[in-house]
Amino acid sequence: MCNNMDWSPSHPCNSVSSKRRHRSKQSKVQIYRLSRKRLEENVEEDMELMNLKLYLENQSIIEENEKLRKKASLLHQENLALMSEFQKKFPHLDRLSTTLLLLLQKH
């Protein structure tokens, strides 16, 4: 059995113990590296998933925006046509008067 009196670098007990400690440190470092690598991979996957969700959300917003632009354009054309019609009926009124008259008729 090894005891404190037998200590020497070449003593078998000390070399085995040293190897075990060294292996233990190596394993911890390897586990730490693996854990860190897995963590980094998970973060990358999470970022990719988040980017995909944001991309799809942006596409949806772009589509909705395009629909609203088309609707606004149609409403503008309709407004111009109504204004033109109204001015034909009341040629003596200017554009501001026509607009005010239309607003008053709605209420």
Automatic annotation (TrEMBL):
Residues 1-14 have a biased composition (Polar residues). Residues 1-29 are annotated as: Disordered. It comes from Corchorus olitorius. This is Protein LITTLE ZIPPER 1-like.
